Amino acid sequence: AASAVPGYSPGFKKPPATLRLKRKRPRRSEPAASAAPPPCGPAARRAPSAPARRNPFSSLDNAPRAGGGNPQPPAGGSPWAAAPFWQLLEPVCEEKPTRRAEPSDRTDILALTDDIHLPVAAPEVPSSPRHEFPADWSIKTRALFMSSQPFTWAEHLKAQEEAQGFTQHCRATEINLPQSIEEPKLSTELRCAFQQSLVYWLHPSLPWLQLFPRIGADRRIVGKASPWSQDEALQQVLMSDWSVSFTSLYNLLKAKLCPYFYVCTYQFTVLFRAAGLAGSDVITAVISPTTRGLREAMRNEGIEFSLPLVEESRARKQRNSEVNLETEVANSLEAGNGMEGGEEPAPSDEDDDESFSWLEEMGVQDKVKKPDAMSIKLRKEKHEVQMDHRPESVALVKGTNTITLLNFLINCKSLVAVAGPQAGLPPTLLSPVAFRGGTMQTLKARSINAKARVHLGYEDIFSLEVVGPVMPHSLHSLTMLLRPAQRGAFSAMLHTHEPTTVFNTHLDNMSPALSKETLRRDLPQCGLHPKTVDQLSQCPTLGKSSIRFLEMKDYTYTWES
Predict the structure, then answer these.
(1) Dihedral pair phi/psi, residue 272, rounded to 5°
(2) How far apart are CA 238 and CA 229, in angstroms?
(3) Mean pLDDT value across residues 420-427
(4) How far, CA to CA in Å, does 478 sit from each of 159, 193, 248, 329?
(5) What is the pTM of this model?
(6) Kind and range of the H or E element at 493?
(7) What residue spans define the domains of the chain?
(8) More confident site: 387 or 323
(9) Which stretch of DSSP H or E encloses residue 190?
(10) Which residues, other chains included, contact 470 with Cβ-Cβ below 8 Å and sequence gap of 6+?
């Protein structure tokens, strides 16, 4: 008999769920117990008025309950008897979230069900569609474009089309496509432009190692061949070659022949931007995340920098305190409880740290142990240590201080790991244009066709996956190609390298957006499309977030961050 097998579960429940159901059985109400199948064995002899014994395979006793109510068996027998096997598994999957709690009554079950189906906080979405999305300075590790139109035009490029795309990239050829392309697969211009948009430049180039991202990459690199890890002479050769490439990139940036580039170390990332981009009229370098040790070393080298998020938070707190103080003064004046003329305000914590005259006034200056200078200094710097490795620690270097930063990074010993899988490996340089020692690389792209279930059937969903360090110019170039190829209707799921998200922060003392004429005069040969330059010249507006979802409908954009 089925009752002789302990823990038997016709509803295909896992053991913990079965045990919970057994614990609930003694607490059931009498009507629910009468609806359940009667027990057999000794329990049946104790209840002579119980109905006849039923088939245990048709038991609904441990079937999932909807909304916390007790299930009532239908008149025609068990509904699971004629159901396919896959339908028996669906209720099990639906009940998995309830394992996080142990409801004891119907009210708790209903509350838990409501909690499970609470809507997730929706990200910020523009109130109205726009013809352009804001610049996203974070690096994407993966972009998945989806559309109702196929991506066959991005498949199996011919050798001539691939070569033409590389040539267009090296010569910075400007490609302007029509608003709509009837046959994208037959458009050679579109396919060449697609190859052109996938190109980026990298240093160093070690094909057996994945050199981006570098933060948290130890697991991917461990076990790979690294002959330089124990060879100091080889490490010096690699760093010397890296220094030449780094200096070459900065010189291109200074001459406005390179719009921006990234320096990716195993601890932090640096974004160098040319004058005219991100609303700044000077060269800027953004470092994130930073530590107190790195900031102290930069100060010792004479590098002037600011902490925009810390200063913004400090200014916001000061404004709030001033508003609160004005409110308190107004309330006290209205209540007639203002301070008397001879009364002094309460001393602040900083006064306590710097002066202990109040101990002398109390006559206990010799009995109380005063904190030493080091303790006072550590207390003042506590907030700096707390923000280490966090987005709030982002540092901004501007103007001529970026040259000092360049020399600092070249000579910084902590720039390269001394132990672990990344020991002796120089930082990764990523650039949209060619530079000395750089290696041409391409993002990996593939098209995927799938079917999505709708109300009455299935519909075809076409997708294009792009994997690799997708930099800001690549994302904008791809969207400019998808606009005519997909007839103004597509969406994109973007996966961001989180340490670079803070690069979208609006930095302090930035100039207003420069005019297009000024940009075209100052950045004539930077290697990017003029529309891409126009987008990257705008002041960042995403804050500490990045674009996660991008959608185009009727040639207008909406996005979520």
Answers:
(1) -95, 130
(2) 11
(3) 94
(4) 21, 9, 27, 57
(5) 0.69
(6) strand 490-496
(7) 140-204+442-560, 227-309+388-439
(8) 387
(9) helix 188-197
(10) 139, 140, 141, 142, 143, 443, 494
> In the predicted model, what is the mean pLDDT of the chain?
77
| CB-based burial label for 198 (10 Å; 0-12, 13-18, 19+) | buried
CA 126 remoteness from chain centre: 19
What residues form DSSP beta bridges with 458?
A: 453
Q: Which of 208, 224, 217, 269 is nearest to 393 (CA)?
A: 269
pLDDT score of 21:
59
Residue with tokens 């100052």, as numbered in its chain = 522
- The amino acid sitting at 281 is D
**83: region left, alpha or beta (phi > 0 left; psi from -120 to 50 alpha):** beta
DSSP classification of residue 492: E
Distances (CA, A) of 238 to 204, 211, 332: 8, 14, 69
Say if residue 329's pLDDT is above 80.
no
Burial class (CB in 10 A: 0-12, 13-18, 19+), 419: exposed
- Kindly indicate the confidence band of residue 373, based on its pLDDT and cuts at 50, 70 and 90: low
The amino acid sitting at 172 is A
Q: Where are the alpha helices (DSSP H) in 64-130?
A: 85-95, 106-116
- In DSSP terms, which residues pair with 417 in a beta bridge? 423
Query: Which amino acid is present at 32?
Result: A
What tokens does 465 get? 């996956």
CA distance 260 to 272: 5
List the structure tokens of 4: 């002789």
For residues 404 and 400, give the distance between their C-alpha atoms in angstroms, rounded to a whole number.
7
In the sheet that 260-264 helps form, which strands lie side by side, from edge to edge? 395-398, 284-288, 269-273, 260-264, 428-431, 199-203, 439-442
Q: What dihedral angle (degrees, nearest 10) is formed by the CA atoms of 442, 484, 156, 433?
A: -20
Q: Which two tokens stand for residue 315?
A: 């200014």
CA 280 to chain centre: 25
Nearest of 430, 429, 432 to residue 172 by alpha carbon: 432
